[in-house]
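During the second half of the funding period, the structural biology subgroup turned its attention to how the target accommodates small molecules. The most pressing case was 5-O-phosphono-beta-D-ribofuranose, which had performed well in the primary screen but for which no bound structure existed. We therefore specified the complex as follows and requested a full 3D prediction, including the ligand pose.
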Amino acid sequence: MLLEAGDLSCGFENWSLTVESVGMESKSPLVGVIMGSVSDWETMRHAVEMLERFGIPYEKRVVSAHRTPVLMAEYATGAEGRGIRVIIAGAGGAAHLPGMVAAHTNLPVLGVPVESKVLRGVDSLLSIVQMPAGVPVATLAIGVAGAKNAGILAASILAHGDAELRQRLAAFRAEQTAQVLAGELP
Ligand code: RP5
């Protein structure tokens, strides 16, 4: 059971609802959502919204590999001991945060390349995806799609030990399928 006490009335009968606010952070998070800057939030909030849809307890915070390197190392080394099971790390530009976090933990790290202004996120993507063999970062697509998929992938990872969450994932997929089948071209 991954759900914690809290308002889950946004429930799974209403998958198409847009989550207007993100306020279900947990004191016993299973997913740590970190990002290099407050400016990444507009992208990374989509990962958080997906976790909220699935009722997965999470925490979110800014952790910068180059501006707060000591905090980053402490966060990554301490995450597993605090009960975190997946880390989602978003960063843009010379996006070393996911790789540096992965260097400090054996937890799965899902990297989200934030779309940078100058190179439109190609720099972020290449920085995150090209980890040398031995320290993996599971890299998602650039921008919002990647952030959403990071949330879904975190749910998939956690669903291995949680039949209820597996059901929610299946329902989510089924709703997408139904929407496509119901769609009409103009
Ligand atoms: C990276 O630098 C952050 O992840 C962000 O995407 C980028 C720009 O940061 P700001 O200058 O907007 O704080 O560390």
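Two results from this model are relevant to the next phase. The chain has six helices and five strands. Helices lie at 41-53, 69-79, 97-103, 122-129, 144-159, 163-182.
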